[in-house]
Amino acid sequence: MTELFGIPLVWFMAGGLALMAVAFSVVGWIAWKNPLLVRMGLRNAARRKVQTTLIVIGLMLSTLIISAAFATGDTVGYSVTNAVYHDFAQADLILSRNVDR
Fold it and tell me: Using an 8 Å Cβ cutoff, are 30 and 22 in contact?
């Protein structure tokens, strides 16, 4: 699998890395300009360990579900294509007639 929706996976990787760099830059800039926000956020995560754990688990599950959906879609698409190639392996030309009229 080298493409997703007709777009090379390398482009997705480059876009993801660029978005991650921008996000880290923004967070770093905010932390540099206003360190109080960072301290409040870290203190809040340390105080509410159960809530933080549930959020992290939820994010991991959502990533797993999306990845599984893409993998299942690719597998089904491959299976259907393989079945069609197998069924019509000996045919050079298939004629059909449209009987809508």
Answer: no
* CA–CA dist 52, 58 (Å, integer): 10
Dump pLDDT digits (tens) for 40-80.
888 988 899 999 999 999 999 999 999 999 999 889 988 88
SS3 call for 3: strand
Does residue 95 register a pLDDT over 80?
Answer: no
Packing angle, helices 35-47 and 49-87, rounded to 10: 90
3-class SS of residue 8: strand
Q: How many helices (H) and strands (E) does the chain have?
A: 3, 2
Between CA 19 and CA 42 the distance in angstroms is 23
pTM of the model: 0.52
DSSP character at residue 16: H
- Do you know the residue count of the chain? 101
Degrees to nearest 5, angle at CA 20 with 41 and 62: 75
